[in-house]
């Protein structure tokens, strides 16, 4: 993998990465640190954040701040804003998210509400809070992590896909608005990506691109000022297929994963 260079002057000195404890978020933290940015690491797992913080400080000579926060709680974004109030944050990577395949009517309603909070509402609030701070600076960036094909709807993952579709749409709209303030907004809409989450949710872990390649493409798009990036050939091809076909394909995958989750 070739290291993607982004402008530390535009997007530094600090970057904030939510969902930093694993997968795409962890890789964002590593690649941003490799660009010389100090990194705020936000997630629910304190011990994992401490390990990652020590790693990037030792390897890249940058500083880090670990913030333990649950963004599925309504107070999460405000707590994160308060924890970073003294830092000059030039880049927000709003990546925190989770999914649990299952039949909508069988899942607890609270689960679907929490999914909406985590996968949509938290992105909205963080984009607003940090967007204002970036606009006052007159430069910076926001990466919102949505999902490829979410607008098509995904059976056995309906609430999650709906929340991700909101994030996709929010980011595309903000791309134009924030550009007038000198701030770049890029939506990262990944398809299947080989991460801990994919394995943990009984999804095929041999399918998809690596987190490193996914993040490299996202940073390349951010540096170029693009409004959206769908990394990976498979995801881009799927995104161009008729919605009815992608729903059928994705639905079969999620139904199988839901059955395995139920059996466990």
Automatic annotation (TrEMBL):
| Matching SUPFAM superfamilies | NAD(P)-binding Rossmann-fold domains
What is the protein's given name? SDR family NAD(P)-dependent oxidoreductase
A Pfam family that the UniProt record links to this protein: adh_short
Q: Name one GO molecular function term.
A: oxidoreductase activity
Record's family? Belongs to the short-chain dehydrogenases/reductases (SDR) family.
Q: Where would one find coiled-coil regions in this protein?
A: none
Q: Which InterPro entries match?
A: NAD(P)-bd_dom_sf, SDR_fam, VLCFA-Steroid_DH
Give the record's keywords alphabetically: Oxidoreductase
